[in-house]
Amino acid sequence: MAPTIDPRAAPKLPVHDLPTPEPESPFRPRKPYRFSTLCATVDNPDMKDQYGSSSVPIYQTATFKGVSGEYDYTRSGNPTRSHLQHHIAKISSANHAFTVSSGMAALDIILRLLKPGDEVIAGDDLYGGTNRLLTYVRTHVGVTVHHVDTTNPESLHPYIHPTKTAMVLLESPTNPLLKIVDIATISRDVKERAPNAIIVVDNTMMSPYLQRPLEHGVDIVYDSATKYLSGHHDLMAGVVTCNADYIAKKLAFIINSVGNALTPMDSFFLLRGIKTLAVRMDRQQNSSQIVAEYLYGLGFKVNYPGLPDHPGREIHLRIADGNGAVLSFETGNKELSEKIVGSTRLWGISVSFGCVNSLINQGRAYHLFQRHASIDAATRAARGLPEDLIRLCVGIEDPHDLLDDLERALIEAGAIAFDMYQNKYVRVPENHLLRTAVESLQLDGGQEGQREWFVSAPGKIILFGEHAVVHGVTAIAAAVDLRCFGLATPRNDGKVSVHFQDLGNFSYEWDIESLPWDAVTPIPPGEAHPDELDQRLVGALNERVLSSIENIQNGARGATITFLYLYMILSRSQYKPGFNFTSRATLPVGAGLGSSASFSTCTATACLLVHRRISVPPPPAPTSTEHIHVSHQGRRAIPVSTADEVNRWAFVAEKILHGNPSGVDNSVAVYGGALAYTREGFGRKGGMEAIQGFKSLKFLLTNSKVPRDTKKLVAGVSEKKANEPELVGGILDAIQSISDEAKRALADPELSRDSLLTALSALMEENHKHLVTLGVSHPSLETIREKTASPHGLTTKLTGAGGGGCAVTLVPDDFKDEQLQDLINELIRENFQPYLTSVGGSGLGILSPYAEHRIRGAARGSGSQGQAGDGGDFAQVTPPETPTPGDASPQFVADASGDLEPLRTPFLNSSLTELPEWSAGLGRWLYV
Ligand SMILES: Nc1ncnc2c1ncn2[C@@H]1O[C@H](COP(=O)(O)OP(=O)(O)O)[C@@H](O)[C@H]1O
Ligand SMILES: C[C@@](O)(CCOP(=O)(O)O)CC(=O)O
User: Fold this and answer.
1) How far is 450 from 619, CA to CA, in rounded Å?
2) Which of 784, 812, 839 is the last residue of a domain?
3) What single string gives the DSSP state of each residue in 113-166?
4) Distance between Cα 475 and ligand 2 center (Å)
5) What are phi and psi of 694, to 5 degrees?
6) What domain range is 436 assigned to?
7) Could you tell me if residue 782 is inside a domain?
8) How high is the pLDDT of residue 363?
9) Least distant ligand from the CA of 709
10) Given Cys at both, which of 21, 99, 429, 769 links 262, Cβ 3.0 to 4.6 Å?
11) Atom of ligand 2 nearest to the CA of 658
């Protein structure tokens, strides 16, 4: 999308006296400088600096000595302010300029020209502050105010009185609806009918660069210089300009009497800001055009004069030189608008506009920030200020980043979704039911019945805070490049089945109707699961479903109950789809790397998808503006609301497997990256915070291969806490300080890499000792610590629940590859299982269900086909133990239709080393 505004094409070049180049020859007329040159050139021949300073000095003084000088008292005059006012007059085509303490102060000075009995005609889409002051003047001064639709010049005619009409207040474009007012025609009409009326224009939205109303017959122009003129939201100022000497005299008298002229310091800063007005505005309005066209292309109602069908565009083109950098759009739904505004990151939620940073706000934000607080709801409605209106004030950031951020917010809020037929994002219909219908139509191709869903989620390492996190302490954890995969394959024979290849190849199937439906209270879509598990359902599953399976091991029992619990509680009475759920992981199971959470996340996602309680918009397909979407290539294509829903249900699954989980593991499995996680309800502020700076760290994970049970270890620590509250309380506090310190160190840009690694090593050492005191270490873990410490000098701590499982070793940047290989070999000789892993990668992934995103034929084979996927950093030293391949247990019966499912066979057949690459090669993965 090319910017459509070329500032050089601006047709009008105002003629200014100062400064102008000398004529090139007596025959060639003087050529006026262009606007940006005028802006940057602060030059007043009548006020040459005694030292030739290039920047106007700040005369920070209240008084001036002597009796004959030009200045005596800063309220009445100050050299810094004089320079500024001269400069503003020059760029505004004005004979006179005044600067006061704010935009409202400027209007106040102007309104003081009125006297009792006067009549004012004003627009009906005015800034709330203007409205408030007008109301005050009306009630306290005895002035009559007529609000009319100034977009139609004729609507003023009935109110123009030859003698009584004293002032006409206009603004174009209006804020925030960007309505265009023909200030030239209105000025002419008013002058013809009421020659003494003063026509005033608020020019803040345009600035003198884009519009100089004095050139169109207006008498007074005012600007809130807090906006574009200064440009950085670092000062408040107002500007008043005019041509007529008699008006200027009155204004000067009022400003001096009131005493609100701009201070020397603010005058200096405003003068500095003005020098860059043109360049800022060029960039801001070019980006605005791009943003406006993007939103318009999505089908939103967009208010921006740069759009071809904007009402009054012809008039605007006549009176202005550009379209400005404020636009607004409507979503059709107030709550949706609130979500969009709340989901942006780069666009700041703030009042005002004209700053180099982009801002966003909306109906409710107007109330919150009192932007339009002085217009009550009824008046707002009457004046057509829609509650769902979102105003965008575009700054100088890279427009691609602005679009990226806006697009992500629109996706997250559910305002746009991918349309596979058009191969692009489109606006989602306002009606949610309709939206869901469209999604299911898109996903199912209009057919009833199921499709295959392939999902995956990462394991995690906890660097600091395991166990303590269960009791409300902050843990610091990150996703690892080892994942669990889950495949839901439809069945048409009224059965549901599971196949857990990593758990002794366990598989089983049930007639759906034979499940204990009498023991379940399904939770309707949109409702949350209660904090406590439904023990009636857990009991029924254990006693009536699992008891008939012979020799089922604990791991498979837990996984089966987890699956069936979610399957049943998420069902709706009429809709109990049959399918097989198969899981496999490149993660070692039960080793402290969060296999249970990644399994829980896959199970929850599969059940939610199959029950149609979540759906996925595919990522944008390649377009000519590819660079704009670069951050969405497969990533962040799953809306946060969907991720939140999965996370809630993955936590329920973790409760079934773990008893009392903290929620850190499933949060990492769903959101990926690295987080500081604090559980709610323990006095500290709960929640998650993304942690940067983790991804570049290198870790060696070593599986001790000693099996252990997280549920028992977590319960053991709780028991110790109950028996020895002081000891455990002290340890919890100490671990909290460790996590806090680690967080600080990771976020500290000043800290050198060496110091960071040293700090993290020391904190890991300390955290491990506390875990030893809590009784969750194991001799095998201590052996790994010794082997890595001597002679290699590396720091190792247990990670996860301990009691065996895994240890994590921080590998410094300068640690030699050969030495690392020696260490790895030594650990393998000791019968440990090392993995070199990168951290901080993607969270939940769903293979795009859209045919366009699948690679044909990829499912049939296994191994390295298609492009490498997200697991690119994966560097497994030795594959984790491959579960013994065996035949499916006798109970397992393939799909009754006899069809070979497209993905299931290759999924089961690919080796663990091939699995990441094979799955990545199937097509496009969508990530949280
Ligand atoms: N790939 C998988 N397939 C089925 N169940 C799994 C899988 N991975 C983990 N689980 C479930 O999670 C349990 C392991 O949980 P846990 O002891 O907490 O280990 P971890 O530390 O790896 O999370 C297993 O016994 C099983 O019930
Ligand atoms: C011990 C704990 O902090 C982490 C458990 O991790 P894992 O099950 O060992 O992967 C428990 C929890 O946070 O739920």
Assistant:
1) 21
2) 839
3) T--TT-EEEEESS--HHHHHHHHHHHHHH--EEEEE-TTSGGGGGGG--TTTEE
4) 10
5) -90, -35
6) 331-440
7) yes
8) 56
9) 1
10) 99
11) 14
Name every protein residue with a CB atom under 6 angstroms from any ligand 1 atom: 484, 500, 502-503, 555, 558-559, 583, 585, 589-597, 599, 657, 709-710, 800-801, 805
- In this structure, are residues 127 and 135 in contact, taking their beta carbons and an 8 Å threshold? no
4 inside domain: no
403 close to 392: Cβ distance less than 8 angstroms? no
Question: pLDDT tier at 440 (50, 70, 90 boundaries)?
Answer: very low
pTM for the structure as a whole = 0.56
107 shares a domain with 229: yes
Is pLDDT above 80 for 710?
A: yes
Tens digits of residue pLDDT in 506-563: 999 999 999 999 999 888 777 889 999 999 999 999 999 999 999 899 999 999 999 9
Q: What is the pLDDT confidence band of residue 724, given thresholds at 50, 70 and 90?
A: very high
CATH number of the domain bearing residue 398: 3.90.1150.10
| Ligand 2 close to Cβ of residue 600 (< 6 A) | no
* Ligand nearest to C-alpha 596: 1
Give the contacts of 519 (CB within 8 A, at least 6 positions apart): 536, 537, 539, 540, 541, 544
753 is catalytic: no
Cβ(85) – ligand 2 distance below 6 Å: no
Local structure of 500: helix, strand or coil:
strand
Residue 463 and residue 431 share a domain: no
Residue 232 lies inside a defined structural domain of this protein? yes
In this structure, is residue 449 part of a structural domain? Answer: no
The verdict on 411 and 473 lying in the same domain is no
In the set 34, 71, 72, 75, the catalytic residue is: 75
CATH number of the domain that residue 771 is part of: 3.30.230.10
Catalytic site residue 421?
Answer: no
ipTM confidence: 0.96
Predicted local confidence at residue 618, as pLDDT: 54
Mean pLDDT of the chain: 86
Q: How many domains does the chain contain in total?
A: 3
- Please confirm whether the linkage preceding 173 is cis (ω < 30° from 0): yes
Active site residue 127: yes
Q: pLDDT tens digits for 887-897?
A: 332 222 233 34
Question: Among 467, 688, 703, 799, which is best to mutate for testing ligand 2, by the most ligand atoms less than 8 A from CB?
Answer: 467
pLDDT at 605 over 80: yes
Task: Verify whether ligand 2 is closer than 6 Å to residue 463 (CB atom).
Answer: no
Does residue 258 share a domain with residue 157? yes
Closest ligand 2 atom, CA of 654?
14
On whether both 73 and 130 belong to a single domain, the answer is yes
Single out the catalytic residue among 81, 179, 227, 283: 227
Centroid of ligand 1 to alpha carbon of 695 (angstroms): 25
- Poorest-confidence range of 125-134, 188-197, 227-236? 125-134
475 forms beta bridges with 677
| CATH number of the CATH domain containing 86 | 3.40.640.10
Least confidently predicted of 228-232, 488-492, 635-639? 635-639
- Both 470 and 377 in a single domain? no
Q: What are phi and psi of 837, to 5 degrees?
A: -135, 150
689 and 827 belong to one structural domain:
yes
Both 736 and 800 in one domain: the answer is yes
* Among 469, 652, 710, residue to substitute to test ligand 2 (most atoms within 8 Å of Cβ): 710
Last residue of a domain, one of 812, 839, 866: 839
